[in-house]
Amino acid sequence: MVVAGLLAEHVVGADIAAVVLFAAAIAVGGIYPVREAVAVLRSRRLSIGVLLVAASIGALALGRVEEAAELVVIFSLGEVLESYTADRARGSIRALMALTPPLADRLLPGDNPSSGSAGGGTETVRGRRLGRGRSPSWR
Q1: Side-chain half-sphere of 76: how many Cα atoms within 13 Å?
Q2: Which of the residues in the chain have pLDDT under 50?
């Protein structure tokens, strides 16, 4: 809608149609950011969404509907890309965790594999997943 508004404004010269298209882009693309901003403000925090809503309201107050629409579109695109990359990263981590071997050799104290000495030896342990913030207890 923003691209159509820009074309209407600069190519065709239909300023009223452009403003309507920009307002529609703000209304459609601004629903989620406004809801998120209200929720964040209720919890007495600030986020980038709150700043986007404040900037969009400021642009509208100054009569800059085009800039407000562009802000909403750019922010929404950023949110989509962030969500996409986070999902891909989660999928990659899951795939990596699936490669965890069920059994592994653990070096015992005093063992130095690089020097070839087997002072402490090795011990076979079963692999297991740990919760967040926990370290393995090997004893």
Answers
A1: 18
A2: 130-131, 133, 139
